[in-house]
Amino acid sequence: MAVVKVKRPDLNAGEKLFLGAIVKGFFITMRHAFDSLRGKTRGADEMASSGLGATMQYPEQRWDEHMPEYYRGAPALVTDEQDRERCVSCQLCEFICPPKAIKIVPGEIPSDDAWAKVEKRPQEFDIDMTRCIYCGMCEEVCPEQAIYLRKDYLISGLNRKEMVHDKKKLYEIGGKRVGLVNKWNELK
């Protein structure tokens, strides 16, 4: 097989210093600046900006109305209509999680419980939000539809401990999800 050598074109002094690109970028920036001062910024209306530029004023204005349908936010656990846990501690979400942000400790359901046939529920369920990459794999792999990615982007904490969401917090932010749950199905 023949090796083909590609000769790069020789650059002049202006091209070596990126002078043309710098000047072009400067003029583009100035055009946007003048357009924003005249109130003719492109995209300002769609983003509900303040009128000066296309920047959204974050604490006062939020993306909630402009959030795309396919947006993946923070994961949370959900319950069914009767406040029963959907999670069966199968640990598929823990195994599939690329950054290993999910930690589950399975626990047994007592035999005197009406739903003892399910066998397991999570004793502990922790998601480290500093490690979560919002990929959605946990939601896809869950056989009981117990974990969902919400449209929430306001996740903050003052230290790392606050960024680890435990089972109680995950159920609190997740809420109820209506629909068939396989583990509560009598025919199963």
What characteristics describe this protein?
188 residues, Alpha-Beta Plaits, elongated, three-stranded antiparallel beta sheet, 4 iron, 4 sulfur cluster binding, alpha+beta, NADH_quinone_OxRdtase_chainI, NADH dehydrogenase (quinone) (non-electrogenic) activity
Give an overview of the whole structure.
The chain has helices at 13-16, 19-37, 92-96, 137-141, 167-174, and strands spanning 75-77, 102-108, 120-128, 147-149, 164-165. The protein is α+β, with helices and mostly antiparallel strands and 188 residues long. The longest helix has 19 residues, at 19-37. The strands form two sheets. Strands 2-3-5 form a three-stranded antiparallel beta sheet. The chain folds into two domains: 17-59, no CATH class; 75-184, Alpha-Beta Plaits (2-Layer Sandwich), CATH 3.30.70.3270.
